[in-house]
Amino acid sequence: MSKPVILVTGALTGIGRATALAFAESGARLAVSGRREAEGNALAAELRELGADAVFIQADVRRDDDVRRLVDETVARFGRIDAAVNNAGTEGQPGAIVDQSEETYAATFDTNVLGTLLSMKHELRVMQPQKSGSIVNVSSTYGHEGAAFASVYAGSKHAVEGMTKSAALEGAAAGVRVNAVAPGPTDTGMLDRFTGTSENKAALAARVPLGRIGKTEEVARAIVFLASEAASFVTGQILTVDGGKTAG
Ligand SMILES: NC(=O)c1ccc[n+]([C@@H]2O[C@H](COP(=O)([O-])OP(=O)(O)OC[C@H]3O[C@@H](n4cnc5c(N)ncnc54)[C@H](OP(=O)(O)O)[C@@H]3O)[C@@H](O)[C@H]2O)c1
User: Fold this and answer.
1) pLDDT tens for residues 5-55?
2) Which CATH architecture best describes the domain 5-241?
3) Does the annotation mark 153 as catalytic?
4) How far apart are CA 70 and CA 123, in angstroms?
5) Domain ranges in the chain?
6) Which of 23, 56, 142, 153 is catalytic?
């Protein structure tokens, strides 16, 4: 079989970057996407140094035209899309519900919810006629539990999980699988912004049964599994990767 073609959004940092590196090491061809051109081209060059055929395509997932072009340019370059990882996301502006506004709602939902919807819309447009493909959305443990002072983020990730299951039902007839990973606290810039101080971060780690914050590579491995043929009968599922945080 030829090398699988993988599309990753929000690939320039954190979990997205670790996912791109993991796919490159597994021999995939990659379209990596993000908003920042210089950093994106640098990532694509790094992936090519690992031996992967990789291209950077700039896109803001909140824009339908950007996502359409991202998907079309990926197909023009590689001929198909075998798996897509919809990882781009934002923590928005965490805070009490009484302090939220139209702007804070849009700042979170436009990327996490509309961005995931637009990504799946264009990916399914390619994968359904192709009669194969695997989509992996990136949710959060806050996609299936509440989060005081992060209600907008939690609401947006609940929406990601609802859309994931619904898209799985729509894609199944064409053999397209749609799943999500739900990371617990994972060591990225987003977690640093969420926690604010090293004391808060340590306190969060102490509440994880495995006693630590997760590594980006650990989430990436779960994403690679869901995207792969090893998960060929798995669709509509949310795979939680949280060191046991939501087990009890
Ligand atoms: N870290 C955690 O503890 C944790 C836990 C659960 C779930 N997650 C989820 O994991 C995913 C990755 O986050 P991360 O932790 O790796 O944090 P991160 O390093 O901040 O990564 C988020 C990435 O998404 C990109 N992005 C944001 N808005 C975008 C937009 N409108 N269009 C295109 N790209 C956009 C960011 O690029 P810019 O630099 O351009 O903003 C950034 O590269 C997110 O969906 C997040 O909600 C993270």
Assistant:
1) 999 999 999 999 999 999 999 999 999 999 999 999 999 999 999 999 999
2) 3-Layer(aba) Sandwich (3.40)
3) yes
4) 10
5) 5-241
6) 153
